[in-house]
Design goal:
The chain is mostly helical and 83 residues long. It is built from three helices and no strands. The protein has a domain of 48 residues. α1 packs antiparallel against α2 and α1 runs antiparallel to α3.
Length: 83
Amino acid sequence: MKAALAAALVAGTLAGAAYPSVDLALACRQPSSEACVWGKAYFPFTLGLSLVLVGGVTATVVYLLLRRRSKEKRPGEETGAQR
């Protein structure tokens, strides 16, 4: 369980930080463009917001998928169906 939580937190942090970084990199293909200037100005705000929103959703989904996968791999455990 702890490994699944750690993996989910790492995935959420990476996704939350990558989204605004890639967005800024694409906007700054022309450094003097208005999108690049505003992107740089709002980058700290966007990064914080993205870590919470995108990272939170990503971490939750990854954690649930890893828990489901680990429950399916346990041999000899009943699935709840009666025979």
